[in-house]
Every structure is written in C-alpha cells, then in structure tokens.
Amino acid sequence: MDNVKETVISILNDLTGEDFSDNLDENLYDSALLDSMGTVQLLLELQDQLGINAPVSEFDRNEWDTPAKIIAKVEEMQQ
Amino acid sequence: MRWFIPYGNPTYFIWLALAIIPLMIGLLYGRRFRGYQTIISLFFLILTFGGPNWKTGIALIGYFIYQIILVAGYSHYRQKKGSANQGWIFVMTVILAIVPLVIVKVTPAIEGGRQSIIGFLGISYITFKVVQTIMETRDGIIKEFHPILFGQFLLFFPTISSGPIDRYRRFETDYKKVPERAEYLDLIQTGVRYVFQGFVYKFIVAYYFGTVLMPGIERHALMAHGFSWNIIAYMYVYSMDLFFDFAGYSLFAVGISYLMGIKTPVNFNQPFKSKNIKDFWNRWHMTLSFWFRDYIFMRLVFFFMKHKVFKSRVTTANVCYVINMLIMGFWHGETWFYITYGLFHGCALVINDTWLRFKKKHQDVIPHNKLTELFAIFLTFNVVCFSFLIFSGFLNTLFFGPNKF
C-alpha cells in the first residue's frame, strides 16, 4: 500500500513540481496546481505505473481533488 | 390557445407556483410525489410545445423516442456479459445521437434560414444529456439503463429549453431520494433567492440593456455607414444584455429545480470578475463549458497523449483547445460569426496558456500585484465583450446587411 502512496506522490510531483508528502489534503484544483491537462496526464500515469484503468468519466473532481483522496481511490480500484 | 416560453412571462410563474406547491409540501413531509411530478412536467411541456407549437411538440416526441431506443440499445450492448466494447459501435452510437441536432443546425444554413421540421426548443440541451450518457455507459460508469429515470432526466422541465446541463448520475441520486428537512429548507431558501435574483437580472437589468438601450444604439451604429463609437457601445450593451438575460434564465431554472429538491448545477459565477480567459470559462455558462471540457477536451487530450500523436504536451493542449472551441462555435450555428467566435476563444486559450507559462518562467521579473490583477480583469472583460460582439452577429448586419458600411 505504501507503494501506491509513493507512486501517486511522485506522479503528482512530476506534474505539479510540488512535494505533497506532508501535504496530503491540499486541494489540487482550488490551488490551480492541476487542470484538465494535468488530470489526463495523471490518469495516463496511473494507468502506466499502477495498471489502474480509470476512464475520464470516472473522474469526479470532488472525489479526486486531494492527494489523499487520489491515493484512497487508487487503492480502492486496485482491489 | 397560447403558448409559453419557459419563464417568459408572469402567467408562467403563476402556473409554476401553483403546480410546485403540492410537490414542496410532499418534500417537506419526506415524500416525493413522483407521479404528480410527472403530470406537472407534462403540463409545462404542453405549455411550451403545444398550441400553435404543436408541430415542435411532435418533433420532440419523435426525437425523445428515437434517443431512448438508441441509448437503450447501446446500454444493452455494453451491459451484456462479455461485451466487446467495440470503438466503432460507440462512435456510431454517438453519431446517431447527434444526427438530428446536426440536421437542425445545418438546415437554416443551406435552405436560406428555413428551420428544420425536426427541430424544437432545447434540442441541443437534450442532445448534450444523451451524448454524455452514452459516453459514461461506454466507460462503464453508468451500469444500468433505466428508461423512466432516463426519460425524467432528459425531459426535466425546469431546464428543458436552455439548460443548465445536468449529469445523469447526479440527477438520478437527487431524484431517487428525498432531502432531509433541514437540507430541503436550505434549498427552498436558496431557490427562492435565485428566482428573485433572476427577476432582477432578466426583467429589470436585461430589459434595460436589451430593450431600452440597445435599439437606439443599433440604429445609430447602422446609420453611421462605417466605424462609429456606437459599435463599441453596442458591444458593451449587448454583452450586458446577454449575461443578465441568460444568467437570469439560469437562476430561474436552478431555483425552481431546488424547490423541487433537485440540485441542478449553477451556470454562472461572476464571469466578469475573471482574471483570464480560462478563468472566464470556469465562470461563464459553466455547465456547457464543463460539458465540453469533460466530454470533448479531456477525451481528445487522452486520445492524443495515449497514442503519442504530438511530441509535446503544449502542442497537444493547444490543438485540443482550438478543436474544442471550434466545435462549440459550430454548435452555436453554421454562420461565419459563430464559428469565428469559437476560433477566437480557442486562440485566446492558447495565448492565455502561453502567457501563463512565460510568466511562470520569468516570475522574478514580471510584477504581480493588485494593480496587475485589476488590469488582467479589465483586459479579460474587454476581450470577452469583443468576442460577444462577434457572437452577436451585429458585424454581419454591418458588413453585409442592407445598410452596410
């Protein structure tokens, strides 16, 4: 499980240039760190690195708007 | 028999108040009278699509049956065990779903302004709902097809003519449940406030700009036979009229939905306060721009990136911005000014992103303070108003009308 957390944080780090290790509840959209482009890149990276097949319409912004929520979603989808 | 454009006149509001009070009493006591809601929905649909408009009513019924069969068929295909989920079947289904709208949009352009007989008020907005449902069914997010719920969603009468465009999964959740009393009281409070704000927007402010000011300015601009300051005045007056009229309508639609215990998403969030064009599209006609973002832009980006069509992320974004906004232009109608409007906004988004990247790179030398923010708001406002001048078609009248330059 830690693996998922590390991977998500490293993907987000690549996309936004920020380290969220200690900031898991930061809202990625309110702070404009992530936009539609970044979102799609995130989905593709999750697919490549973790084998998560999340289609674009799965992506409800309210459910994926912080690193913590993304990690939780990914873990849920891996099962 | 008369007919009523939704929220068009006081009589419509009286009917509306009388019809939804029983529904509201039910909701306050923890019941949703679904049968009753269906009956009043039919009543309001007949007010708009009946009487002298009966032909559009027939078009609506035909269209509705067609789309129900189409979505039912596609859902059946996707939900049977071991569905192959073929790309071409999905694409064909989407094409079939938009064919009626395309016919309605193209007919006036090729037949000298004559309207298609299969058209009716609000066809675009129902088409958006159908297409997004097909896409989410393809993605496996919508797992079952329920013809009654889907029908209620498509024909939800408060938003039938011009949106806001709701999402099926969101609508279904609200429609199936009854809000807690405290939550519903909040909804009533907000709903009533929206409706009254809508009155001020549509019947006072938009009336002043659109009906009192605009005709005179328009006449002066046309009589100048060339550039005059009246064109600039027209640009601002038209922009104000467009906003207050449409935002007013949207407030009615959202307010009435709230009273019915359905949280239809809002359409405007102080768009003239936008700091840049991207910000503007997050605040202006939001349900439309979010629809385009989620069902066109993001899917295009996904496709291009997955198949590595373009080397750089920037090129991908730029190409998608322009395609996205061009499609929006074509959706508005097949005239040069709507298509130019789309292209204009596509390019504006590209320039906006380029500037933001440049600014980020040189943030140590480019100032950022209250003053530059004010300037950004001022600039965005003017760019937007100019785009509305294109959109208005007034330049078409000026350039090609009987009183041309």
TrEMBL record, chain B:
Its EC number is 2.3.1.-. Keywords: Acyltransferase, Cell membrane, Membrane, Transferase, Transmembrane, Transmembrane helix. It is a multi-pass membrane protein. Signal peptide: none annotated. The keyword Repeat does not apply. One of its GO terms (molecular function) is acyltransferase activity. The chain crosses the membrane at residues 12-29, 36-54, 89-110, 116-135, 147-165, 194-214, 235-260, 314-332, 338-356, 377-400. Its main location: membrane. It is found in: Cell membrane. Pathway: Cell wall biogenesis; lipoteichoic acid biosynthesis. GO terms for biological process: lipoteichoic acid biosynthetic process. O-acyltransferase that catalyzes D-alanylation of both teichoic acid and lipoteichoic acid (LTA). D-alanylation of LTA plays an important role in modulating the properties of the cell wall in Gram-positive bacteria, influencing the net charge of the cell wall. Catalyzes D-alanylation from DltC carrier protein. This is Teichoic acid D-alanyltransferase.
